[in-house]
């Protein structure tokens, strides 16, 4: 869980409730922003890993998805990416 103030936790819960009440693109992005900075793990409780290139995504179409992730800020360029 995120370690922060009660106010920010309450805001995230409100954002989550609104998203579940009526899911749409705008509410999804508001939720993503509200949860930015919170630690997440995989379903098997593994830590998320730093991705250093499209091959590290390990999925079909990674060479197409990777630049999109960079553009929207999900992945930061480190200068060590596989090309």
Your description of this structure?
- With 83 residues, the protein is mostly helical.
- Helix 1 runs antiparallel to helix 2.
- The protein is globular and about 40 Å long.
- The N and C termini lie far apart (35 Å).
- The mean pLDDT is 78.
List key phrases describing it.
49% helix; 4 helices; globular; 83 residues; mainly alpha; single chain
Could you write a compact summary of the structure shown?
The protein has 4 helices and no strands. The chain is mainly alpha-helical and 83 residues long.
What is the element layout, followed by pairings?
Layout: H1 6-21, H2 25-34, H3 54-57, H4 62-72
Helix pairs in contact: 1-2
How far do the termini sit from each other?
Answer: 35 Å
Q: What is the average of the pLDDT values?
A: 78
Structural class: mainly alpha
Which overall shape is indicated by the principal axes computed on the Cα atoms?
globular
Strand percentage lies at under 5%
Helix content: 40-55%
């Amino acid at each position: 869980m995120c370690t922060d103030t009660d106010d920010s936790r309450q805001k995230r819960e409100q954002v989550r409730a609104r998203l579940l009440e009526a899911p749409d693109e705008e509410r999804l992005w508001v939720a993503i922003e509200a949860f930015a900075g919170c630690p997440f793990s995989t379903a098997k409780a593994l830590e998320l890993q730093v991705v250093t290139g499209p091959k590290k995504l390990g999925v079909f179409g990674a060479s197409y998805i990777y630049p999109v992730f960079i553009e929207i800020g999900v992945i930061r360029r480190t200068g060590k990416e596989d090309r």
